[in-house]
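Course assignment 3, question 2. Fill in each field.
Student: A.L.
Task: Predict the tertiary structure for the chain below.
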Amino acid sequence: MIHLLIKFAQDMVLDTLGVNKVNRLSLSNYSLKFQIFFINLLIALFGFLFFLFFNIYLIQNDKNIINDYEYSKQNLLKVKNFLEKNSIVRVPLFDDTCKGLDTANCLDVNELNNNLELSEPVLEPTITQQYILQNYFNRVFDVKIYNDDWIKIVDTQDFYNFSNVEESDLTEPLEIESGLYQGYSQFFQNLFRVYYQEYIKNKFIDNLESQKSDIVYVAEIIRKKNNINKKFLNIENNIYQLFAAPIIFNESVYGVILISYPIINNQTLEVISFNLFNFYILFVLIMIALSFIFSRGLISPIKKLSNLTILERDKVVKNKIEYPQRGDEIGILSKEIKNMSLDLKSQISQLEKFAADVSHELKNPLTSLQSASELLLNKKISDQNKMLLIQNIDKDIKRMNQLITDISNFTRIKAEIELEQNEYLNLNHFLYDVSNYFADNNKKIKIFIEEKDQNISVLVNKNKLLQV
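Answer field:
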């Protein structure tokens, strides 16, 4: 009891001095479920930030913009060189002297071949269309070609592929791919595209122009005979890259090539970002599931240990309490709590035995004092016997005083032992320190230490042991 009071007083002093202050911002003030939830929330937040930074990195380091730019520019030069070498020809003029059913005025074939008239060099449409259709159909860019009369003779957007013909019933409803996943995918890619477009607009905001008619560019190129490289916003507010070059032969312009494509035309980034986001969602779900399993495996045995300590304290269960036996840290905690409980029970048993011994030791002199006092009250005893009784009373009083002093010393020493700060001490090192301390002595005594084990450690108070 005295030991418990001393410990309680020591804890009160520590609280008064502010040693045991509670930091309310610490996670340890909340339940384990909340701690696990909060940690998972932080991990998910950091993962989402990593996902955002990775998307920003993808957009800022998109090489497709530069690759498409160089690719379109190279193809512009390739088309220009081919058309200047192969498509500027003289075409036969149409003979309008032979009309109707009257063939008298018509020349025969030989005369016609001899009198064949050719036009001035022009950009031949058939050769141009065949070349563009065979080489530049379904590319990332669109190709338009105008002649020197501002007439469009080629447009890859107006080409149709007639190689495959399919028959379909217009009365049948079209199957539109739909579903929750498809809607989710479309929503994410649209969101990614919006941010991507905003980034590209901010990047090229100083070089953007409003969209003009193709004829405006054609007229400008024919007049100035130079190339055009522009970026503009179309009606749908999308950024387009435009390359234009004149088709020149013998210092004359015979046509204009226009190549344009949307700068934001990279669906690969959208797919990469979408797959990464799906991986992030899967990671969060797996983390939540594992955390739930981990929390059940961690919190349940801790609650069981808490309930067992309550049962030990309240002594509710009459049967023997079974502590969980595990190989992890919870098992170690369970073992230590069990050992502490056994130690407390042992101390209580020793305290009861000590109280019984003290009671027995005190009852003997008290019984003797009671008997002596009763005899003194009896007037029939002689004076000599009275003196003997008084001497016995004095001896019993001294005996009780000595017993009380011994009990007081015992409790004080017991409390000091419990309050001492012990440490694990290597006896070999300790003995060498003692030997060095007494090395310089007047009696020339030498201390020899024979080591049998290098790791002999005991839990003691070093200062007290040194005093001994």
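Instructor remarks: The beta strands are 88-89, 122-123, 142-147, 152-155, 208-210, 228-233, 239-249, 252-262, 423-426, 457-460. The radius of gyration is 52 Å.
Grade: pending
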